[in-house]
Design the sequence.
């Protein structure tokens, strides 16, 4: 089972401590590392290989959820902008990285993709440290949830 499928299965079972909330298209989760505080992912449920494997309605729902997470992270963190990346090269199942970008980042990194950060030495997500932010993002998403 792939990493994305494993994380979705853990979220379904209430065993993924990084879950922010269930979204219409999947799961909003905090990133394993927090070199940029507020880094999140959107994991689809059900898991599919790529955005292109979704029908038009499911694509629109996924992309709207992605933007909604970005709005909540912006509000919760005061970041200056958001970066969104759907790659799927290492983990060949749909997932979107949602990165807040800050004016306080080092100049040489602020203008580059986040992949130039050292992920191996980055601060790991920890509930005592990052849990309040995770909960704040969840509250903002709940407050902005469109009526069904």
Sequence:
């Amino acid at each position: 089972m792939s990493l994305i499928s494993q994380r979705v299965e853990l979220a379904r079972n209430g065993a993924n401590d990084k879950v922010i909330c269930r979204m219409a298209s999947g799961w909003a989760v905090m990133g394993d590392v927090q070199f940029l505080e507020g880094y999140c992912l959107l994991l689809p449920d059900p898991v599919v290989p790529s955005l292109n494997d979704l029908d038009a309605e499911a694509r629109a729902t996924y992309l709207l959820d992605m933007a909604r997470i970005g709005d909540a992270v912006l509000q919760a963190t005061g970041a200056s902008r958001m970066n969104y990346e759907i790659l799927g090269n290492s983990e060949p199942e749909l997932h979107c990285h949602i990165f807040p970008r800050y004016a306080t980042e080092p100049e040489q990194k602020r203008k580059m993709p986040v992949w130039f950060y050292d992920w191996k030495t980055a601060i790991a997500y920890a509930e005592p440290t990052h849990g309040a932010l995770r909960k704040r993002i969840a509250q903002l998403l709940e407050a902005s949830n469109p009526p069904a």
About this structure: The chain is about 35% helix and 15% strand. The chain has one domain: 3-102+116-141.
